[in-house]
Structure formats: structure tokens, C-alpha cells
Amino acid sequence: MESIKIFSAIVLFLNSIYAQRIPVLHNGNENQPIDHIPFVASLRLDDVDESYFGKGHFCTGVFISRKNVLTLASCFYQNDALLNPDEVRVVGGTKYKYEQEIQTFSTILNEILIHDNFSRSSLENNIAIGYLTDELPKDNQYVKSINLLSQESPVENLNLKIYGWSLTTRFEESLHLLDGTVVVTAIENCDPAFNKITTTTICAGPYHVNGCETDDGAPLVTEDGILYGLIDARPAGYCSKIITNRLGTYVDISKFYEWILEHNENSAIRGNKISLITILFFVFLLQFNAIFL
Ligand SMILES: *[C@@H]1O[C@H](CO)[C@@H](O)[C@H](O)[C@H]1NC(C)=O
């Protein structure tokens, strides 16, 4: 009996170490569903999803108006070919990947706009807009576009949230939406051996809070919903079941502010300039820390 107890204790201990060290969101807790996040979109291969709701999920995105979803350009390349818009189903208002709820909204795309200067090799300008066939409903609190895009890159040490259907601590895909808090850090902390660093990369840690491959395009936002970035491409195997120490990379959407506005239909988006006062306040806080800590 004693030996079984000791064995279980060791297993639990090892499990907790692994749990901390693989990239997961919300500590990968399968038993703690979060609320609906109305601006999070699930992108799915329509033919796969038709036979099994949720199975077609391949990328994530953000509703930026009632007509448009913002995501990565790389998302639309599957098996080296550019998807046709009518092959892509966009689902909103569902927190359980495999369950349709009453408020679930779903439509296919009628156009995919890839940034002109997107490079599949360097991943520069990895941004795209999908135009929805049906508009988001006007009166559905579970499906809504985000209304603020940041016009500034996030400052270091800023806390931001990420959302996705990432891995759980049991190394399984999550059945419900997960969230996590990351902190923006200097670009040098992101390892170019694991992540493609571009001129628009944001780097954020800690390493065990990260998105996995089907979280590509998922939002990096403030607590009150100001969009700063998208989870950048996570190549196959990025979240393999091994101990990893790579920090996450994100596409800085402020660098594409004009491009997004120019191509966003029915947009209600307003810009969010961080005022000089806010910056001075942060500088003051940093000084204060330096003196007292
Ligand atoms: C793509 O790059 C060219 C050459 O640098 C530039 O003139 C053009 O404005 C860029 N396109 C976009 C959409 O940024």
C-alpha cells in the first residue's frame, strides 16, 4: 500500500512539473471554462466541419467588424495551396469547440484578402482579412466585433490576454476556450531558432503560457479588449509533448493599422493612441521601482 502511495505521489509531482513546462493557456485547466469571448472566431475547413462540428478547426481569428475576420495570412495556406474562400467556415459565439450552442454563429467566407507583401518564407506581413458571407447578428452578445485596435506597439511589461483552444496540461487539445496572461518582453528574448522573428514581431512570455498550432491568428488583447496582436504561426510540432522553453511570438497589428482600416468593411473600429501622459506615467513608475526596489 505504502509503495502505491509513494508511486502516486511521484506521478503527481512529475505531472505538475510537466504541466508548468508545456505551453498551455489558463494553466490548461480542462475543468475551468471561461466565459464566451465574443470577438474570438474559430476558422474551420468547411467540408471537415460539415461531418463533425469542430473537427475542421485549423486557425483562430478576431472579428474586426460585422463583415470581417482578421487572422494570419499563413492560415489560408493548407498543404501548400491557398484555400478558396468557400472552403473556410467561420464560427463565433461558441466556447465549446465541438458543441453548437443556441447563440452559435456560423458562415463561410466569400473573399480572402492576403497582405500584398506577405512572405511565406520569412513570414513578414503575416496578416489577412476574411470577408464573411453573412454579417454577424446585431443583437447577439456572444458574437461581436472587437472595437479597438491599438495604433501603438505594446510597451515592455504590459500584461495582455491570449485566447485559444490550446493544449491542456494533459497534453490533450482543449474542448473549451482557454485564456492566459502573457507579459510583453524584449524581442531578444524570443529565440530565432524556434520562432521566425520579423519586423513586426511582439515577443511575450512566460514560456508555459503560449498558443499551439491551431491557435494561429488568435487575439493578443488587453483585459478590456484592445487588440494588440495575433498569435503568430506555430509550426507543426511547436507544442509537442516535450519540455520547452520558447517564448511566444505575435504579429504586431499596430504596424498594419492603416491597412486594416482601409480594408475593413462596416468598421466601427476606433484607434487607440496611448497618450503622452500615459507614457510619462509609465516612465515615472519605472523610476519609482528603480529607487524603491
Ligand atoms: C508592399 O511593398 C511595396 C514595396 O516596398 C510597397 O510599395 C507597398 O506599399 C507594400 N504594400 C503594402 C500593402 O504595404
Automatic annotation (TrEMBL):
Residues 25-265 form the Peptidase S1 domain. Belongs to the peptidase S1 family. CLIP subfamily. SMART domains: Tryp_SPc. One of its GO terms (molecular function) is serine-type endopeptidase activity. GO terms for biological process: proteolysis. InterPro entries: Peptidase_S1, Peptidase_S1_PA, Peptidase_S1_PA_chymotrypsin, Trypsin_dom. The chain crosses the membrane at residues 274-292. Pfam families: Trypsin. Gene3D superfamilies: Trypsin-like serine proteases (2.40.10.10). SUPFAM superfamilies: Trypsin-like serine proteases. This is Peptidase S1 domain-containing protein. The keyword Transmembrane applies. It comes from the Eukaryota. Residues 1-19 form the signal peptide. Keywords: Disulfide bond, Hydrolase, Membrane, Protease, Serine protease, Signal, Transmembrane, Transmembrane helix. It comes from Polypedilum vanderplanki (Sleeping chironomid midge).
